[in-house]
Write a structure and sequence with these properties.
Number of helices: 7
Largest sheet: 5 strands, antiparallel
Strand content: 25-35%
Number of domains: 1
Shape: globular
CATH architecture: Alpha-Beta Complex
Radius of gyration: 19 Å
Distance between the termini: 29 Å
Helix content: 25-40%
Order of helices and strands: HEHEEEHEEHEHHHEEE
CATH superfamily: Cyclic phosphodiesterase
Length: 232
Amino acid sequence: AQSPLPSQRLPVPDSVLHMFLGTEEGPEDDSAKHGGRVRTFPHERGNWATHVYVPYETTEEFLDLLDTLLPCAQTHVPRLVRMEAFHLSLSQSVVLRHHWILPFVQALKDRMASFQRFFFTANRVKIYTNQEKTRTFVGLEVTSGHAQFLDLVSEVDRVMEEFDLTTFYQEPSFHVSLAWCVGDARPQLEGQCLRELQKIVDEFEDSEMVLRVHAEQVRCKSGHKFFSMPLK
């Protein structure tokens, strides 16, 4: 909860108070706190790593599937770790100055205002690395709903261009990352391991329904702050 503001100050609208749930200090750059991952760009005071995505709301059945997939993948790469939260990216991670966060989010809200909710399916196992190949991910690629994600990215890219930020990849592979590890583990995960993981997905009971998800909102994470943009 927000502490009361001094009486001599003008009141701050609730909408603004609810947008800023974290502190204004940037996170300290301690790789030990995030599994040894290396930052794509160094943290500087007043700069906020910002990311736009569609959250992936899990079900008990989805987590059961993940509990089957992960041990199989770990027989090939034991250092794989399950993701703490699940999403589908609509942007690369970019840097925003603190005073640009609210204008950036408002521009996103304006762009998202007319978008309808939609169903999508992510059921094709695929192995990914980040651009620097310092991290590897086991993911589920979108097989239906791709066109709607492209439309969302088109609008997010327009906002990125307005703020002179990097746009998304030219031919994106929309996916939900399930697990990750440090380093480039593609040689161990592609081939036999990938076939085993895909077979688990294909044979999982009611997998078609388990992996069909309703996209209801877009979120933006900037530093420790989260902003939600519901779709119509």
